[in-house]
Amino acid sequence: MTALTCQAATDSQNDTFRELPVEEHFEKWMVFHGRSYADESEKEKRFNIFKKNKEYVESFNNAGNHTFTLGINAFSDMTDEEFADIYLRRNCSRTASEHRPRRPSGNKPLIEPHNGPFHNVSLSALPVAVDWVRLGAVTSVKNQGSCGCCWAFATVAAVEGLNKIHYGSLVDLSEQQLIDCEPYSEGCGGGSMDDAYDYVVENDRLAKEKDYPYVGQKRTCRDDKVESVASIKGYASVPSLHNEAALLAAVAGQPVSASIAFGDDYVPRFKNYRGGVYSPDPRGYCGDPKGNFHDIAIVGYLPSYWIIKNSWGTGWGEGGYMRLARQANVVGPCGIFREAVHPIPYPIDAKPSPPMAS
User: Fold this and answer.
1) How far apart are CA 276 and CA 297, in angstroms?
2) What family does the Swiss-Prot or TrEMBL record give for this protein (predicted)?
3) Where are the beta strands (DSSP E) in the chain?
C-alpha cells in the first residue's frame, strides 16, 4: 500500500467516523488500528483519553483560524504525556544525549567546519523549490513504533538520499543496525544523530533493511554478519542561527537530518497533525521546548514551507509527511536550524562499490 493510499484510508476514517457517537467511533477506531486492551478497566481508561483527544481535535479544527488541521490517528488513545515520553522526550538530540556516555573527543571522525560550502549562501542563487520525494531520492515512509529511535530513522533517511543522488540507486537501509550497534546510544531509549553518523563513518558500513530488518528493540549487534551496501566519508553540521539560506542550500543538494523542538502546549498539535502547513508562533517557536525534541528528515522545500519526512507511519500527517512553515528567524520554525546535519559522500572514484537496489 502506498503512502497516498494509506493517507486516503486514514482521511476516510476521519471523515466517515467523525459524526458517529464517540463510543461507536472508539470501537471502529480500535478495529481500524488493531487495538486491544488487557481488561475492561484499561479499555475504559483508553476510551476516556480517546474522547478527550477527539474533543481537542474537533475544537481546534472548528476554530478555523489555523493553517493546518488535526485528526484522529494511531496515537489517539495516548495522553500527551505518554506520547511525549516515547516519541519526544527520549529523543536523539544532542540536548537529550548529554547525560549519556559520550565518544571521546579525540576519537571522532572528520566533521567539516561550519565555514564550509553552506556558509554565506545567497538566497538568490538557490532553486525556488526542491522535492526529493518527487525526484526519487526518498524511500517509503517508515514506522518506528513505540521505540524511541527517531535519531536512527533521521540519519538513515539522509544517507539513503545521499546514496541515491551520488551513486544512482535508492536502497532501503537499516535503522536496526544503528540501534543495535551504535555504542553511545541507548537504542529505543534515545540516541544522537552525530553518534549515528560517527558509527557509519568509523565502521564504513550500513546494511540493507531487508538484510538487517527493523524489530523495534535493541538487540545484540550483528553488523559483521551482513553485507554493507552504503558508507559515507563524513558528516557536517549546517551553520545555524539566523541562517535559513544555509539550510536551504543543504537541502537543495540532498535530504538533511534535523531536530525539532516543542513546548508541552504544542505537543497535541504535533501528535494529532493531519495536514496543511504547520505554523509555529510568530517568533518561530513551538512553545517553550523543555525536553520535547524529535529528529526528522528534511526532504525538500517550497517558497512557504519545508517538506518533513517523519517516522510514525503513513497514518500520521500527510501520508507520513508534514509541511512546516518557513520562518527566517533565529532558530527556524520549531528550532529546525539548531541541529541540522548532512552526510558527506566519498568521491565517486573512491567509493568501493555503489549500493544496489535489490
Assistant:
1) 18
2) Belongs to the peptidase C1 family.
3) 68-70, 111-112, 130-131, 234-237, 256-262, 273-278, 292-302, 305-309, 321-325, 341-344
Going by their DSSP bridges, the two strands 321-325 and 305-309 should be labelled as antiparallel
Is the alpha carbon torsion for 74, 307, 63, 3 positive or negative?
negative
**Which of 206-210, 290-294, 306-310 shows the lowest mean pLDDT across its residues?**
290-294
- By annotation, the residues acting in catalysis are 150, 294, 310
Q: And the C-alpha cell for 321?
A: 509527511
For the chain, the 3-state helix, strand and coil shares in percent, each to the nearest 5, are 40, 15, 45
Spatial CB neighbours of 340, under 8 Å, sequence gap ≥ 6: 237, 238, 240, 247, 250, 256, 257, 258, 259, 298
Instruction: Show the cell assigned to 185.
Output: 546510544
How many of the other CB atoms lie within 10 Å of CB of 8?
14
Structural element, H or E, at residue 85: helix 80-87
Backbone φ and ψ of 258, nearest 5°: -155, 165
Q: What percent of the chain has pLDDT over 90?
A: 69
Residue ranges and CATH numbers for the domains of the chain are 3-79 (1.10.287.2250), 84-350 (3.90.70.10)
In 3D, which of 165, 168, 167, 189 has the Cα closest to residue 179? 189
C-alpha grid cell, residue 289: 521546548
Q: Which are the contacts of 16, defined by CB distance < 8 A and separation ≥ 6? A: none
192 vs 293: CA distance, rounded Å:
11
Parallel/antiparallel/unpaired status of strands 111-112 and 234-237:
parallel
- Please report the pLDDT score of residue 281 as a whole number: 82
Residue 306's pLDDT is 98
Instruction: Quick: pLDDT tens for 43-68.
Output: 999 999 999 999 999 999 999 899 99
Indicate the average pLDDT of the chain.
87
Per the CB < 8 A criterion, the answer to whether 164 and 255 are in contact is no
Q: How far is CA 178 from the centre of its chain?
A: 15
Q: What is the pTM of this model?
A: 0.89
